[in-house]
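Worked example 2:
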Amino acid sequence: MQETAEEEMIEEPATEEAKPEEPATEEAKPEEPATEEAKPEEPATEEAKPEEPATDQVMDEQASTDSETATSDQTEEAEPEAESKVESFEDVREQIANSLAQPIAMERMNSAVIELDSKMRRYFNMKAIYESNKSIGQDVQPPEALDLKALGESLGFRYEKMGPHTEVTIEAEPIANSLEVGSLQMRRGPAFVTMMYGGASQQGQAVPRQELYSPLRTADDRAGRIYVSWKTSESEAYTPKLEEVREEVIAEIRMQEARKLAVAAAEKIAAAANEGEGKDLADAVPADKKDQVQTGLGPFSWLDSFGFQGASIGNVPELDSVGEAFMKTVFTTDVGKSGVALNQPERVVYVVKPTGFQPDTDMLKSRFKEPRDRMMALLAGGGSANDVLTGFYKSVDERTGFSFLRDDEDQ
């Protein structure tokens, strides 16, 4: 089923780009199985080579907070900390200027967002009244169209019109990474795509589809961007004929087959790296691919917290769209061992090798016992605490081999 929509978007860049937490030191290396090469990111353009596998990305992943010493021996002693010193005003002039200017810029930005949203909402209300009166036979004039481009640019926004998009294709747009600007305890609301096309929130609550010309404010905290957008047209979902989507179907089939080959090749590399104690992951990478090994990428965290706004998946800027599966593999793989994980769009396969975690598990458990940290952990998932508990119970069942002999209704 396909559903398409067109959107107009106004983007307000923040005065400071949000800085993602540094990734855990890791090496990312695309490695392809056997002697065949392939790039699963471009399946549609490789019709003459359906036998090519997806690109494997191999990485030596390090979670140490010091990316320069993370690859050194464990026995190497840490360098003494440098003594603190008083910096001159000239050395910190720019930092002071930025800290003084940021509150003013944020206030102006918020005022511009509120003004734009207000005018867009006023037009939406006037249009709704017009359509209501017209539906009962009244002879009324439509409201004057709102020049969103001119209005947005006058307030310092960047204007863009995009689409039509389906719920799947719009994921490639940067705005798809934004979340609704919520008001409940300063938390972010559902994702932009969920708001525009309808669906369910993380808490399982139904989210209705956004109406035409109804303004939507979303924010991408990581990129430091605020969006005000609305939907200008839409078409009902339908099942297309094969002729309409033939190229997409072929590309998807080839992607699925390439993904299988890529995963198999990545698992082979991981197994080779795990054969001996202290074996470097790079040694298992073919010679012609060693230049693609990445080092010094850490540290990063599984989740990045925004305080009461919740948390989002951590980021590794040098890698392609890492997601939950990637993070789970990284943080559940023993130090010194290698694991295999797909990225979020499942177009790249990674081989990861964590070399250290900070703080260690015992320290994390100790911190979790503190009331404040337990409360933050409860809020970190954006209200998905039940999912966390369910996952914990499931992991215990898997480790212990526990299973129910009868279904719940039979007990």
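The CA atoms of residues 88 and 365 lie 42 Å apart. DSSP finds eight helices and 13 strands in the chain.
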